[in-house]
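Troubleshooting log. The previous structure file for this entry was overwritten by mistake, so regenerating from the original sequence record. Sequence copied from the archived sheet and checked twice against the printout by T.R.
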Amino acid sequence: MEQRTDEQLLEAYRGGEASTLEVLVRRHHDDLLRFLYRLTGSRTLAEDVFQEAFLQVHLSASTFDTSRRFKPWLFTIAANKARDMLRKNARRRALDLDAPVRGSEGEVTFVDLMAIEGPSPSQAMDVTERDAKVQQVVSELPLLMREILLLAYFQKMSYAQVAEALDIPLGTVKSRLHSAVAAFAKKWEAANEVDV
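Regenerated output below.
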């Protein structure tokens, strides 16, 4: 069962093989929870949205086109559920744009800051501190910016996959991602100025 694709597992689930949904939940548990935690900024909220997302997968399984990819569909459902919960909690944040990311050792790219790999010896702060600071800065971004950053950088989805997941044109993905990176950069720089 583990060798089957996500799409094959969902097709089997629709055919009455109930255990395949459990395989899908296990297969996407870590990635989806990380995405939702970073999107919502709350472990509890992320877990609630995770459950809501798979409940929606169950309810909408019959409408899924198995010629398409399951993961973008799942992440679209999860992002929509997270948006709904965040709206209910009225956790909208202000919009900031345009600034390069600068570190103590010169220019640093957004990808460098968002990488989850272990630290290089020259890093000034330990991984736990940096991850917490990155999470804080990401959580201060508006929801649309958080979504696109998390899908593109943390989930490593292509522009086309992000466009499909968010149901927006490819050009919109590129412009939102550019704005989101700029906003992250400005907030990152401000956060690091406070620490100096």
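The mean pLDDT is 80. Archived copy saved in two places this time.
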